[in-house]
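Example record used in the benchmark description.
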Amino acid sequence: MSYTAIDSSKKYVRMKQDVYEHLAKTFIDKKVKQKPKRKILWILAAFSIICVVMFLASNYFLVEKRIFSKSLYLLHDKTPIVIKYDFTSLGNSKVKALSFNLDNLDLSGYHFLTLSIRTEEKTKIDSTIKVQIENSLLEKDAEYISGINSKWRRFVLPLADFKLVKDWSQIKTLTFMVEDWNVTDKNDKILIDEVRFTE
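Model output (structure tokens):
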């Protein structure tokens, strides 16, 4: 009977190499398999974000188009009209007004009055102005715009809120009134721009 001598240290090294090769192959294969999954996840995430952004953008433009698809501008030249008032003296009027003569304008197809307003001085408490619409039948009604300060703000007034005006086919005047009891600074200016009627 013959015996073959086995070098145990070589056998141990060989086993160690086999284990390393097996682990390396398993790890590399796993890494290769995971990469496409990770790539697909990133693509899906990017696609989802793009879809959400496109939806929000289209929704915004559709709303803007729906509300302001038809506009009739009274003032649109970036040169605001100014109502200057001084309520500090006893003899002065307590109401300062500025009117647009609309010459019996037909506004029956419009639903909103939009405008931008600000004060000239910086105020701690916001001011308020009165907006009045009158037709040729002398039907008139007014709404108040509050929250006016030294920063430009756009306001949208539904014409339906002017309930006493029944006939919108012959609108005679649009009037802005600054009243002593509705403003913080008694000597200031109200600037009005971008005045338009919209559908």
